[in-house]
């Protein structure tokens, strides 16, 4: 039986200006598509351009921004070495991170609304097609926009 995709930690952020926020804790996400656990580091600064800072897909947008902006598009993944978790670099393609974005939207729990808790099929596909069609320059130029700040515990 194949493992299902899931957010392994909660998204914990702090607004740092009107358009950006930083992760107060690492965000862990298991991607069934990649069969890997992605780790977005504490302090990663995200402007949510994948979703314009809307809470309904903020977690998936953080994953997507991290993939587009990480230096050389090398994201952190968690691997098991000798029974302990070790972070390794994984070079992620545009197609892969776009697919992870779509997959993550399917399992993300958005704030309660009168219509439900998950991101709807049509909304997922519109956002996914938006990054597939319009994301080429953002992927190409993304590493120059990578920011990470020190977070005091």
Account of the protein in words:
This protein has one domain (6-144). 30% of the residues lie in helices and 29% in strands. It has four helices and ten strands; from the N terminus they run ββββββαββαββαα. The chain has a five-stranded antiparallel β-sheet with strand order 1-4-5-7-8, with helices on one face. The chain has a three-stranded antiparallel β-sheet with strand order 2-3-6, with helices on one face. A hairpin with a 2-residue loop joins strand 7 and strand 8. Helix 1 packs antiparallel against helix 2. The model has no long low-confidence stretch (mean pLDDT 85).
Question: What's the short story on this structure?
Answer:
With 153 residues, the chain is of the alpha+beta class. It contains four helices and ten strands, in the order ββββββαββαββαα.
Q: Uncertain segments of ≥5 residues (pLDDT<50)?
A: none
Helix content: 25-40%
Largest sheet: 5 strands, antiparallel
Total tally of structural domains: 1
Which sequence of SSEs, written as H and E, runs from N to C?
A: EEEEEEHEEHEEHH
How many angstroms separate the termini? 39 Å
- Alpha plus pi helix count: 4
Q: What structural class do you assign from the helix and strand content?
A: alpha+beta
Rounded to an integer in angstroms, the radius of gyration calculated over CA atoms is 15 Å
Residues in β-strands, percent: 25-35%
Mean pLDDT, rounded to whole units? 85
Global outline: globular
Number of strands: 10
- The neighbouring-strand order within the major sheet is 1-4-5-7-8
């Amino acid at each position: 039986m194949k493992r299902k995709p899931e957010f392994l930690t909660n998204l914990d952020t702090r607004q740092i200006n009107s358009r950006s926020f930083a992760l107060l804790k690492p965000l862990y996400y298991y991607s069934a598509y990649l069969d890997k656990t992605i780790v977005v580091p504490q302090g990663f600064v995200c402007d949510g351009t994948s979703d314009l800072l809307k809470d309904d897909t903020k977690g998936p947008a953080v994953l997507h921004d991290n993939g587009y902006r990480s230096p050389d598009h090398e994201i952190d993944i968690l691997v098991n070495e000798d029974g302990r978790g070790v972070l390794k670099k994984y070079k992620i393609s545009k197609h892969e991170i776009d697919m992870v974005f779509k997959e993550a939207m399917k399992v993300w729990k958005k704030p309660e609304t009168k219509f439900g808790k998950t991101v709807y099929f049509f909304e997922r596909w519109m956002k996914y097609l938006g990054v597939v069609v319009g994301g080429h320059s953002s992927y190409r130029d993304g590493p120059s926009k990578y920011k990470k700040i020190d977070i005091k515990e």
